[in-house]
Amino acid sequence: AKSSGRNNFQFYSGEMNRAALERLHLEKEMRSAQDLGQYQLYFQPKYSAKDLTLIGFEALIRWRHPTLGMVPPLSFIPIAEENGMISQIGLWVLEEACKQVYEWKKTFNYAIPIAINLSAYQLRSTTLLSEVNAVMQRYELSVNDLELEITESVAMRDPNACIGQLNALRIMGVQLAIDDFGTGYSSLSYLKVMPVHTLKLDKSFVNDIGQDQNDEVICIAAINLAHSLGLKVVAEGVETVEQQTFLVENDCDILQGYLLGKPAPSEEAKQFILDAIKA
Ligand code: C2E
Ligand code: CA
Ligand code: CA
Ligand code: CA
């Protein structure tokens, strides 16, 4: 028992070292990723549930590394949050997304809003407001062209500070959404005063529609709650027709997921707009 205990320990510490080394390597590579142009935005379409018109995109960051391959955001965004690099990455995402709105508007004469994900760091930042304002002016964006998504858990970490920041953004005309709704612990009293327009129902609930009655009940309850607070609901992670039908029947407002469109680089995402214009 003693020796197997030690083996376990060695195995565990070996794993720890490997994870720590990997992280160090990622951090080092991250330092030059932006200058080397390794970051890229993908765009995933969002559709109105009732008639499937294209209503906007969500921008999702991708890191294409020459030897590590495609590094998923959940592998490097949390590290960037910890070491502060998120502040540069966040600014880059904001800039790129607004530039894309501007370019599509010019190309298609079609205003299509883009949502970006805000990090905890950005939400706390005292310069966020002026940065958003500057970039919106630079690309001549109007009200409704830009949406910011804040995860429920980040919003609830310091709800009072968050409400202040969101209020100022809302006054500027930015659309606001609570992301991953249902996975954090928002109290109803805070939800009531959060100055957001939209709730994004987490994909873990959408995932089990048709299989787990509890999740179906949660979806319906979340939709009703949002509507009674005057908010729209986006269902994320819609992968099957069955999920789509269920969500439409239960009055969900907006659908997003692989069934309707996967995140794609700008050149491919353009096709979603062309299809919308044709329809
Ligand atoms: P999120 O904001 O909840 O984004 C939705 C995630 O679900 C994306 O993963 C998207 O590709 C994926 N997804 C969309 N439709 C489906 C579907 O039908 N089925 C399944 N299984 N997945 C679907 P992704 O792109 O890997 O991003 C993961 C998370 O990383 C995001 O979750 C967001 O929290 C974060 N993230 C991504 N881009 C950024 C960014 O620019 N800034 C910040 N701060 N965070 C970002
Ligand atoms: Ca999101
Ligand atoms: Ca989400
Ligand atoms: Ca479940």
TrEMBL record:
First and last residues shown, out of full length: 411 to 689 of 698
Organism: Leeia speluncae
Lineage: Bacteria, Pseudomonadati, Pseudomonadota, Betaproteobacteria, Neisseriales
Transmembrane stretches, start-end: none
Residues covered by the EAL domain: 23-277
Protein name: EAL domain-containing protein
Tree of life domain: Bacteria
